[in-house]
Design brief:
4 copies of one chain form a homotetramer. The first copy, chain A, is of the alpha/beta class. Chain A has one domain: Isochorismatase-like (Rossmann fold). Helix content of chain A is about 45%, strand content about 15%. A 6-stranded parallel sheet of chain A has the order 3-2-1-4-5-6. In chain A, helix 7 links the parallel strand 4 and strand 5. The longest helix of chain A is centred in the first third of the chain and has 28 residues. Chain A is globular. Chains C and D meet through helix 1, helix 3, helix 4, helix 5 and helix 7 of C and helix 1, helix 3, helix 4, helix 5 and helix 7 of D. Chains A, B, C, D: This is Isochorismatase. Chains A, B, C, D: GO terms for molecular function: hydrolase activity.
């Protein structure tokens, strides 16, 4: 048991050293071959969505409000960071690509099995499918829809990125432990250089976000804060 | 801060309830359409490999031995479970598919960027590429090689499973937080039903294994112990 | 030279015999697992499109009119057949999936290299991107866009068909020698059963259509006429 | 009928002009990013294979010999060209990638549906799976196996080419109308520049080869003769 603590410490050092070699220098930022990937920045992650959802199910929401208010606060901070990243990327000519969970068919029959089994059906127009106001796509920006967790398995993004000659990705969005983790793993496996913005992504709880970070941060992708990225973007050109 | 604990508790309940509906009943086991996927059960996860590697780098291994012995003990227990699962699956006619990290080319030029950047080059015959003795493929069993983290991105397994009419997967192997997590996420997104054997997989440390489980266990895949699976397999036919 | 004629005859018999065994019985038609795939049934295949295009390029169209009128006649017959197939499939509950060439971005930057090199840019709203009136999608029918030849490489259709549990495909559209041939080859390689309706597809010339048929008809897919299919559909239920 | 001849002529001119703009200049040849793709250069395309096969089926081969001898002659010429291309590519440092039809499993259970339906089962060691002596892979050259028509759907070649930073392909092999056509279409759709060597590929009959060329030559890929390619390769460096 004690030795497991020794091992944990050893492994932390082991990965930290490995990461330093690979992710010590953040990816270069070049509008020509870099895109901003926004994953599931849609209203189904907001406090309002949960509150309305629970009410619709006839639940007494009052006892849940302390938890949901904390969720709202956490997600709100993340959305503010996403908005800053998005605006600065647009300003500097880095193309945003918006990915969201939404089916193509009105009856959601095209939903993937993972989501279908969990009852996660999001036909167009359903509550939760709208983009958050902090990350509303502009006319002419790419919007891709998926009905599963991963962006690579669930959308033609790999092919689109190739056609656009993009091979560097800045990733933000929801949830760190689910769709974001899946996307980052697959992107990196396909050969893209990936930079994740650690405070412009979040999970349903801080606990889940923090634990998920350990598996991917500086292992599958370089990681920096919104502030660090904005500083680097500001210096562009 | 306090409210974040309330939120954590709320979220744990939330996912537990969701999971109960989807993963409360484990996948049925039918040799006709079920395969056992063994991920990276190769010697590069063993204590011996790390000890030899550190020695080859001229490091003094002595101070690391408590950590490495614990690693050896943890991995050893997992390998014993993998062996039991593999043998029982063979006995019951469930096809094992062995996936390992190894390049096709002698100079490893075909290695994916994630592994190349990290210096993880595994040409055929390199230390670490042999299967562990507990999970040695038999003549005529499928062996697939990859040079990245994910089994779906890195091998033609999706197509092979389709040709074999398999849509249920039992997953074991290494590491829980890396190649195993990536594979389970992608398999599930592609529509496969996945059953992960929680004590027949492991990470470099217990800490990493435990944290990684939270993101996938009963969310991307049903989860049971070796003992539970063996009991169910025993009842087959 | 003479012996090449003997060989041609021999090979025709060889493939005819092989085809009889595989495609002698047409695929069964079951709305549960069958879809109608309409490929590029869009106005860029019509006589009007070519006439307008040549005029826009400042060419004297008059000398080309005999050829273009013949093209219009050929395509018109095919469109009439497509319309009959589409209507009967809808009536019988076989889901139509409409695929067309159109970029996602207004500047067509997401166009695949094959089309980009050839100057084939089709941003939304461009002449040629509208569906032909004979095959206008209804509200709630699937529409997929591509910027290359193949439907499998260029759209997420494989994943969508899996989610819909469809594994039998009826294929119609344009052009037999290009996008239709590519799609049929890839669909079949992925394991779908494919039935091509030989007079509900066409190429720019009868010569090209006929020659292309030889490579795929009853080799990559079973083949029947509109009339034969309609008779079989009529008998459904 | 007459007007169809006018249309055929018009269409030939139309594609010839389009092709001139795209394929008028052959792809540049750079060992850094160019590979030679050899498709199905295996003994199942040889006269011997057919003769033995027919005998094994108890057929009287004698009446078929004029056709089979012509087949042997045609294929022999093609194999000689393939050998010259392969040797010159090796000499100039252009990496050959050998693709062949062969299952992974001894019982060929992993065979794709297209081949399974046609009874085309090629387990390892089966007659027909050996590479032709003119195109025997050297130690350390990439060999990929497939159980379907297409190289892209049937092998992980797209990922391997990306890892190798290759985006230009020289394609040779068998059969022009089947596996070669499918591969060229998919490669080009994925964004690779493709150069097909028109007399280093062939079909079962000259008729089939010629007709298939029309659909792909200078439409999906640039096309040159063995002699033209060898001259260009000779000038390299």
């Amino acid at each position: 048991m004690d030795n497991n603590k020794v091992l944990d410490e050893f492994v932390r050092n082991y990965y930290a050293q490995m990461a330093e070699g690979v992710y010590g220098t953040p990816i270069s930022l070049d509008p020509e071959d870099t895109a901003l990937i926004l994953i599931d920045v849609q209203t189904c992650v907001t406090e309002e969505y949960f509150v309305e959802g629970f009410k619709a199910m006839g639940m007494d929401v009052e006892p849940l409000m302390p938890a949901l208010d904390q969720l709202g606060e956490n997600i709100g901070e993340t959305l503010a960071n996403i908005e800053r990243v998005l605006n600065k990327c647009r300003e500097k000519g880095i193309r945003p690509i918006h990915i969201k969970i939404e089916s193509l068919l009105p009856d959601a029959a095209d939903t993937g099995r993972l989501h279908k089994d969990a009852g996660m059906l999001y036909p167009p127009g359903t509550p939760g499918t709208d983009f958050c106001k902090e990350a509303m796509p502009l006319e002419g920006e790419l919007v891709l829809k998926k009905t599963c967790s991963g962006s690579v398995v669930g959308t033609p993004i790999d092919r689109i990125l190739r056609n656009l000659h993009i091979d560097k990705l800045i990733v933000v969005g929801f949830y760190t432990d689910q769709c974001v983790s899946t996307a980052i793993r697959d992107f990196r496996d396909l050969g893209y250089q990936v930079d994740m913005i650690e405070d412009a992504m979040n999970a349903m709880s801080k606990e889940r976000h923090d634990k998920a970070l350990q598996a991917i941060q500086n292992i599958y992708a370089g990681s920096e804060t919104t502030e660090e990225l904005l500083t680097r973007l500001e210096e562009l050109k």
